[in-house]
Amino acid sequence: MTSIAVSTTINGDDVEFLCNADETLLDVLRNRLGLMGAKEGCGTGDCGACSTIMDGRVVCSCLVLGAETQGREIETIEGMSEGQDLHPLQAKFIEHAALQCGICTPGFLMAAKALLAAHPDPSEEEIRFWLAGNLCRCTGYDKIVRAVQGAAAEMRGAKT
Amino acid sequence: MTFDPSYKEQGLKSVGTRPLRPDGVDKVTGRARYGADFNMPGQLVGRVLRSPHAHARIVRIDTSQAEALKGVKAVVTAADLPDQSNGDAATFAVLDNCMARKKAMYDGHAVAAVAAIDASVAKAALKLIVVEYEVLPHVVDVDVAMAADAPVLDETVFTTGVEPAPKTPSNVANRSEFGHGDVEAGFAKADMIVERNYKTEQTHQGYIEPHACVANCNSDGTADLWVCTQGPFVYRQVCADLLGLDVSKLRVTSSEIGGGFGGKTHVWAEPVALALSRKAGRPVKLVMTREEVFRASGPTSATSIDVKIGAKKDGTITAAEATLRYTSGPYAGMWAELGAMTSFACYDLENVKTVGWEVVVNRPKVAAYRAPSAPMAAFAIESAVDELAHKIGMDAVDFRIKNAASDGSKSSYGPVYGPIGIGPTLEAAKSHPHMSAPLGENQGRGMACGFWFNFGGQTCVDLNIGADGTVTIAVGTVDVGGSRASLSLITAEELGIPYENVKAIVADTSSLGYNDMTDGSRGTFSSSMAAISAARNAIQVMRERAATMWDISVDDIIWEDGHAKAVGATHDNLAPLSVADIAAEAGNTGGPIAGHSELVADGAGVSFGTHICDVEVDPETGSTRVVRYTVIQDAGKAVHPDYVEGQYQGGAVQGIGWALNEEYVYGADGRLQNPGFLDYRIPVCSDLPMIDTQILEIPNPNHPYGVRGVGETSIVPPLAAVANAVSNAVDVRMFHIPVSPPRILAALNAQAKG
Ligand code: FES
Ligand code: FES
After folding, report:
1. Domain B456-601 class in CATH
2. Where along the chain is composition biased (Basic and acidic residues) (chain B) (predicted)?
3. Which of A40, B463, B638, B725 has CA atoms 20 to 30 A from the CA of B547?
4. Domains of chain A: which residue ranges?
């Protein structure tokens, strides 16, 4: 198979990689670039464990081809904190015990980040629907919703 | 020093607080390494070929073309995993389930596997393996499988537990019976009797992380296994048995685990990965796809349960009886037996009898799922109890309170209870504001109770004190949801030092003595008991070191608030020594300071919960929404209440999914129709309300801080609580879980027709 050369931006850095035509962005992140924060829970777009942000939109990286990311801006969990400073969502997830096993957490954080970018003051219902594409089998979602509410409040406070 | 595990009431400083978990940052930054997040040099990709048939004889397997493909480094079949079970049926079942020998027993049963340089070569190689099958008649339904004319799966299965022993093989592997008193005499005294059949469908644990491992067999007979598991020591033992390895030469390291709920207590593809590595001479990474997880890793039993309960007009239950039929997959299990034991555990009954039938069918081998077998039994019993209360005109909660077991009751499965939480959770439910909140149109309220035994078992902990006085504890129970935080809290409590000074880690199998799995809600219960024992041993050492430093008798030194303190008039001028003070001098007083503990944690206190559920049913579509939900459960002592609440909420939501949506759907050909999260729908965030929790603390007399396991009971009541709520909302009893829209509509139509 002939490899495809791709130039893209990941977490603000220019990245170049070679991939096969059938390789997904998730495969590229995990197997070629060593960015293993995105998880494969299903490979079919049903669980959200692989959620990343592409050009500001949440995508299932298992449904995006590596070759499709040419010239795009990709954000992954590895780029969420600023150095040692956790993003408010990350801090609130720990504070609210919004993770048990934690396998779903990177995906939820990506989806929640996109949510708060669009709706800084979301209702509980908005949170629940924005996060409906991310499966969590451990928590029952209660503490996840509260963590997002907590982060939203803190981020709004930080802005004013 | 003998360890005294008995409960002592005391003021607790750390236990019961809610500090940040020690593995939190790793998990929110994507740095935590799960099963699939580990690689080794020269690693190959493993993949498994699976039977497309529910039941088929394997006539011939030809792997030659696959072996000839460039990039393929090994192909294995059952011949590479020879039978070393020495007639032990349970070991043989595990082996045969990992790789089919003579017959494929279910859709998805492994028949061969390859290791290749990358995923696409491995995939191509699977297509080149030729398997000739002779398709056999199959059976997936529990009641059909028990019928005399059902195809018999295994000619060596003769029902055990019945007299006289049958002379012909059948699909019924075992009969078990529990109870006491005389049920016939009891029913004769009843004013009202409810007698019903209930069914539940097969569900999957649905952990988001598929099974994943990296196996490495070296030429010198040593081997390593990196794997997501709930029990690295058990995986080591089983894999060593199946592959003929020395136990001590196989080192198993548990990765972070992305959910297990019982499903990662059994080996699946790990022995196959080791066999591939042994044959290829290179490390092999094997990760299941989601489809494989559904088709070939542990679902629950599907069940059919008959219940008969009789009561007097005043609400006293006079007799209770249940017959429980559970599928166990193609191999004998003890799932119906667990169901039979748990059925009536909530109640104090004079006459009770339960019978469990284990039934083999052409479905995947059943695995434990959170309080295994109890939710289905509770669905049947708690539905019948609800109906009976209604029929005699008593409030459902009052009826249960009247019959609830308490301290001194003889349980339906044998033992006599000590202090237990069923009565208190029911009283709490009765006075909970949820119980009296108004209901809207098309809404109904249901409640139900649940029980789980909780386990203890073999446990080993190492506690090491660093030169600066901070402490590491190495435990052998995998952390499935916050137990490192709980164990650090308990260690800090016992030593009298801050939580921040303790770090708990999960050790690999070569670094610590044997530990049973994280199952049976035993993780925090048993490892905390060992941690307390290890801390007490370390305190003893520190008192001795302080005695050396002060040159006084150790008998004149007590341990208090994290310090060695000299007592008695002659020493009262000595300033107390902290852990750090003592540790700093360790090199001069006898070397490193550690505490070790190995024990069998007995006396895991039984656990009870009561749930309240409100649903709204759309009468046009049969679709149901849970609009309010409350969990009340006894924790003994909540070590880290956030994670106790999390266990309550998570279990409740798994139960809600089971009650409303989740089920394995088989086609007429015996193939699984919905092996993915799109068609096997687990609850999502927008399906649910907040899940309220109330933690009761009735101390377990057999744990120093009163701790009971909390992980499992929460999945037991929801099936019945939801079904009772639906029944109350639409005024039709529901007898078949899940109460999915088609089943609700069918029930409504049947009622309309009268
Ligand atoms: S792995 Fe991409 S959605 Fe599940
Ligand atoms: S925390 Fe385990 S799946 Fe969400």
Report:
1. alpha beta
2. 1-11
3. B463
4. 4-79, 88-159
Q: How close does chain B come to A15, measured CA to CA in Å?
A: 19
State whether B208 and A104 contact (CB < 8 Å): yes
Residue B1 has pLDDT above 70, yes or no: no
Overall CATH class of domain B303-454+605-752 = alpha beta
Residue B463 neighbours by CB under 8 Å, 6+ apart: B471, B472, B473, B474, B491, B531, B534, B535, B537, B538, B594, B595, B596, B597
Give yes or no for A123 touching B (CB within 8 A).
no
Helices (H), ranges, B432-521: 433-436, 483-495
Residue B208 near ligand 2, beta carbon < 6 Å: yes
Q: What is the pLDDT of residues B524-564, one digit of tens each?
A: 888 899 999 999 999 999 999 999 999 999 999 999 999 99
Beta pairing class for B624-634 and B607-617? antiparallel
- Does ligand 1 lie within 6 Å of residue A62's CB atom? yes
Domain A4-79, architecture per CATH:
Roll (3.10)
CA distance B536 to chain A (A): 29
| pLDDT reading at B614 higher than 90 | yes
Contact assignment for B653 to A132 by CB distance below 8 Å = no
Pocket test for ligand 1, best of A50, A58, A65 (most atoms within 8 A of CB): A50
- For residue A135, which of B210, B198, B60, B48 has the smallest C-alpha distance? B210
Contact list in B for residue A100 (CB cut-off 8 A) is: 259, 480-482, 643, 646-647, 650
**A33 close to B (CB below 8 A):** no
Measured between beta carbons, the chain B residues lying within 8 angstroms of A49 are: 208
Residues B485 and B650 sit within 8 Å (Cβ to Cβ): no
**CATH code of the region A88-159:** 1.10.150.120
Residues of chain B with CATH 3.30.365.10: 303-454+605-752, 456-601
- CATH 3.90.1170.50 given to domain B41-136+209-258+264-296: yes
pTM of the predicted model over 0.95: yes
ipTM of the complex: 0.98
Put simply, the answer to whether B258 touches A109 (Cβ < 8 Å) is no
Distance between CA atoms of B222 and B720, rounded to whole angstroms? 50
> Which amino acid is it at B128?
L
Q: How confident is the model at residue B514 (pLDDT cuts 50, 70, 90)?
A: very high
Question: Which residues on B lie below 8 Å from A37 (Cβ)?
Answer: 29-31
Strand B691-696 relative to strand B502-506: parallel, antiparallel, unpaired?
A: unpaired
